[in-house]
Amino acid sequence: MNTSLLSLSFLLIIFLGTVSARSRGQSEHGFSQEDQAQCQLQRLNAQEPTFRIQAEAGESRIWDWKDDQFRCAGVVAARHTINPRGLFLPSYSNAPLLMYIVKGNGMSGVLMPGCPETFQSSQESQQQDDEKSTRFHDQHQKIRRFRQGDVIAIGAGWTHWCYNDGNEDVVTIVVEDTGNNLNQLDQNPRKFFLAGNPQQGFGGAEQQGREKYYQAHQKGEKQNAGNVFHGIEEELLVQIFGIDRETARKLRGEDDKRGHIVRVEQGFKVISPPSRREEQERRFDNGLEETVCSTKLIENINDPSRADIFNPQAGRFNTLTSYDLPILKSLKLSAERGVLYRNALVSPHYKLNAHSILYCTRGDAKIQITDQSGSCVFDEVVREGQMVVVPQNFVMVKEAGEQGFEWVAFRTNDVAMQGTLAGRTSALRGLPADVIAASYRVSREQAMRLKTNREETLMFESRSRSPRVAAA
Description:
Layout: H1 2-23, H2 33-37, E1 51-55, E2 58-62, H3 68-73, E3 76-82, E4 86-93, E5 97-103, E6 106-111, E7 119-126, E8 133-140, E9 143-146, E10 150-154, E11 159-163, E12 170-176, E13 191-193, H4 207-216, H5 234-241, H6 245-251, E14 261-263, H7 275-283, E15 298-300, E16 309-311, E17 315-320, H8 328-331, E18 334-340, E19 345-351, E20 356-370, E21 376-383, E22 387-390, E23 395-411, E24 418-420, H9 433-440, H10 444-452, E25 459-460
Antiparallel strand pairs: 1-2, 2-3, 3-12, 4-11, 4-13, 4-14, 5-10, 5-12, 6-9, 6-11, 7-8, 10-15, 16-17, 17-18, 18-23, 19-23, 19-24, 19-25, 20-21, 20-22, 20-23
């Protein structure tokens, strides 16, 4: 009797918990019912960054996350430019993110809470006052080098920083998945800086963009705060770290007007393996399960030899999922990289289980997107620097311009699946000819042509249409 009552009570608790979760209107991806209603989109647009944040050694440009398209996908997008010797200050976000390196190379640190400092060294520093050498020991978490075409995966709450040790600007595209269940806050971007006074960076922004940025935040949210130590009393910091008051003031970022990307004037020394060893670690895997602290966080998706789909007449297509980079399984994110040759086409296709955020890295293409009602919600030429949000199951087709078309896309699922509507693996190819004939009121011969005219899988060489001339 007691066992039966215990089982009944346990089932009742599960039932009530399920009802409570459903009443909050949360989906698996973390969207509320209100957010999902914003996916009733009548028109999509190619977007360019709205806000500009200037810093001492670079700048950030942010897309308007309040736009319905970004609200539908539950993401925030930004483009960061880091000048040579520029350091993007250590910070963490309320949501997992993927960073794609558009240009340049450098080094990055990702600090996972609770993981040990596995990089250790003994260094010597010269005191200028008394010309004495002081030996000190440094240890920190792993440093990873990045290069053009790399995707860096960063979890919610993981502190990360980037340093440009090259001779050209580093340009990155970052997409944060604020609709993810790992984010328990709202869908507004929240960057928690550990150093500096990042809000000073807004001082150099265009007045209009800055006003829009402030208006977009929730009412009552403070805008004049600096790093996370800024709100802690100076005396407490002195006691906690065992430091003097001057150091405590610097820790709080007082009178620091450099912004969120600072210039490193002196030599930048951190412990990092030779780049050749890093490359070997990328290419060879011993098959053993990696721990969280040593898991791989970077993968290059710009290597032609790793293309998942390749057509010598049309282009190539690379994907990055949790099968390639296991950490993506916990982040629920993935990415793709596409290169389309001049006037080539991409079969009409859709993502079965994810939104897609597409960014043009070079060239241009005519893109059309249709919704569930068959309405064309997007019909524009997308150019370098523009971004398009493609909601789940919306059908998209691309036609490259005279200069070709290259893009990177971020997907809100770690194993985003794709369906095509033309070509060898398409839905039409899998239908019986008689079903096609009856559905479209065509002859069996026409139905067979619809099924078999294209033997490619995704990327098609242009045939009958004359080359498209991109609008100026």
